[in-house]
Write a structure and sequence with these properties.
alpha/beta, 432 residues, globular, two-stranded antiparallel sheet, eight-stranded mixed beta sheet
C-alpha cells in the first residue's frame, strides 16, 4: 500500500508473488475486510488482490460516479504492477465491476465469479432516494439498517460483534463517495449485454438475499453463455461474511476448474478451456456450514428419467413470489384445496415458469397482461410484486398496463393501475 492517486484505488496484496492473480471486489458500504475469511485458503493457489471503493475503509475520498469509472481505476491500479490477466470475484457493486470487466476488457479476464450481483440493481429511484437520505441525514440511517439488508436475522442475533462491525463500517464511509456509488448503481443496466460475457462465470447467491436474490441470479445465468448457479442456504446479501466456508469452497472449485487461457496474439488462437464444472458438489463443508451446489448447465435428456416438475416448481414459485407468500398459500391449504396447490406448483411453476424459452421478466409482462384481461385483481397484486422481484421497474410495469389498456379495455386497466400503484408504493418506499 502507498499514497493513492485520484485515478487509482486503495489496495493490498496477499499470497505468493509468482501465483496467478485473483481479485476480490467489495460491496457498497464494505471494505476489503469482508473477504478476510476467504483469504487464508485462497492464497494457497493465488496471489490475492483486494481493493477498497473510494471513501471506504479510509481510502481517499475521490468519488466515482459510474461503474465504468471504478473499473478504469481498478485497471490503472493493476497496471502499476504489470498485472495484465487475472481472475475476478466481486460482491454486489463489486460484481457490477466484474461484469464491466468482462464486457469491456475480456482479454484481461481469465474467469469470473459474481456474488449477490444483478444485471440491474433494483430501480434507479431506489438508489437515488438512498442518496437523498444520506444528503439529509448522513450515513447513520443507512448504517443502522445495513445488518437487515446484509444478514439473516438469525445470524445477526447470533453474531453481535460482526453486526456491529458492519454498522461501523458504513458509518465510517465518506458520504459523498457513498452517494456517488449509489448513482453508479442507479445507472447500471447491462441486461441487453449479458450474452457478450465470454468467460466462465460462477453466479453465487444467498438463498435468503432480499437485495439481489435468486431471481436476479437466475437472470444472470440465463443471459451469460457459460454460467453456473450456486445458491448458498442460510445466507443473505453479504454471503461471504455470513457463510465463509461455503463461499470459499465454491470459489476454489470454480477458479481451479474454469480458468480460461489467454488469447495468443502470435497464433491468433485461444486454447480450449477445461470443461466447465457441471456436477453438483459432493464434498460438504464441516457442519454447521450448509452445502451449496453448482447447478448443471442443462438437464441431460438422454438419461430417460424426467424429474418431477414439482421440485423445480416450488423453487421457482418461491423465487418469484417470495417465501412469505408461498408459505401462506401452503399453510392455508387443506384436504379440499391441497390438490390445487400441488397442481399449480407442478404445472404452472414447474412446467411453464421454469421453461427456458422466455426469461422471467418477459413472463411477468405476459402474466400481468393476462390478469388485467381477466380482471383478476387479487392475483395482479402479488404478481406486481413478483414483477418487481423479476427485475421490472415501476416504469416498465406502467408501460405494460398502458399496453393492456389498449387491448384489454380502459376500465380493466383503470382497476389494474390502482392495484399496481399501491403495491409499487409499498415495495419502493424506503424504510429506516
Amino acid at each position: 500500500m502507498s499514497e493513492t492517486p485520484p485515478n487509482t484505488l486503495q489496495y493490498r496484496f496477499d499470497g505468493p508473488e509468482d501465483a496467478p492473480v485473483l481479485i476480490l471486489g467489495p460491496s457498497l458500504g464494505t471494505t476489503w475486510h469482508m473477504w478476510d475469511r476467504q483469504v487464508p485458503e485462497l492464497v494457497k493457489q493465488w496471489r490475492i488482490f483486494r481493493f477498497d471503493l473510494p471513501g471506504h475503509g479510509g481510502a481517499p475520498a475521490y468519488p466515482a460516479g459510474s461503474v465504468r469509472d471504478l473499473t478504469d481505476r481498478l485497471l490503472a491500479t493493476l497496471d502499476q504492477f504489470g498485472v495484465q490477466r487475472f481472475g475476478y470475484a466481486g460482491c454486489s457493486l463489486g460484481g457490477a465491476v466484474g461484469i464491466e470487466l468482462a464486457l469491456r476488457h475480456p482479454e484481461r479476464l481469465a474467469s469470473l465469479a459474481l456474488i449477490a450481483a444483478s444485471p440491474r440493481f433494483g430501480t434507479a429511484d431506489e438508489f437515488r432516494q438512498r442518496g437523498v437520505i444520506v444528503r439529509t441525514n448522513g450515513l447513520d440511517p443507512i448504517a443502522r439498517t445495513s445488518p437487515d439488508r446484509w444478514f439473516t436475522s438469525g445470524f445477526a442475533a447470533a453474531q453481535p460483534a460482526i453486526t456491529e462491525w458492519a454498522v461501523q463500517m458504513v458509518r465510517t464511509t465518506d458520504p459523498g463517495c457513498y452517494i456517488a456509488a449509489c448513482e453508479a448503481l442507479a445507472a447500471f443496466d447491462v441486461r441487453a449485454d449479458l450474452a457478450r460475457v465470454g468467460v466462465p462465470t460462477l453466479v453465487l447467491v444467498g438463498s435468503d438475499d432480499q437485495v439481489t436474490g435468486p431471481a436476479e441470479a437466475r437472470t444472470l445465468v440465463a443471459g451469460i453463455p457459460d454460467a453456473r448457479l450456486a445458491v448458498v442456504p442460510g445466507a443473505s446479501h453479504l454471503v461471504p461474511v455470513e457463510q465463509p466456508a461455503a463461499v470459499t469452497d465454491l470459489l476454489v472449485r470454480h477458479f481451479s476448474t474454469a480458468w480460461q487461457p489467454a488469447f495468443d496474439s502470435a497464433t491468433g488462437q485461444t486454447a480450449i478451456p477445461a470443461t466447465p464444472l457441471q456436477a453438483a458438489l459432493t464434498a460438504a463443508p464441516p457442519q454447521p456450514v450448509p452445502v451449496a451446489e453448482i447447478a448443471p448447465a442443462a438437464p441431460h435428456p438422454q438419461s430417460g428419467i424426467r424429474p418431477d416438475p414439482y421440485d423445480a416448481g416450488i423453487k421457482v414459485r418461491r423465487e418469484v413470489l417470495g417465501d412469505a407468500h408461498v408459505d401462506r398459500a401452503l399453510a392455508q391449504a387443506d384436504e379440499f384445496s391441497g390438490d390445487f396447490q400441488e397442481f399449480i406448483t407442478r404445472y404452472a411453476w414447474g412446467e411453464i415458469w421454469d421453461r427456458p424459452g422466455l426469461d422471467r421478466r418477459s413472463r411477468s409482462c405476459v402474466t400481468l397482461t393476462a390478469l388485467v384481461a381477466g380482471g383478476h385483481l387479487d392475483e395482479l397484486a402479488f404478481h406486481t410484486r413478483a414483477a418487481l422481484r423479476n427485475g421490472l421497474t415501476p416504469s416498465e410495469i406502467k408501460e405494460v398496463l398502458l399496453q393492456a389498456a389498449v387491448y384489454c379495455g380502459v376500465p380493466a386497466a383503470n382497476s389494474a393501475f390502482k392495484v399496481a400503484q399501491q403495491v409499487i408504493r409499498e415495495e419502493t418506499t424506503p424504510t429506516e
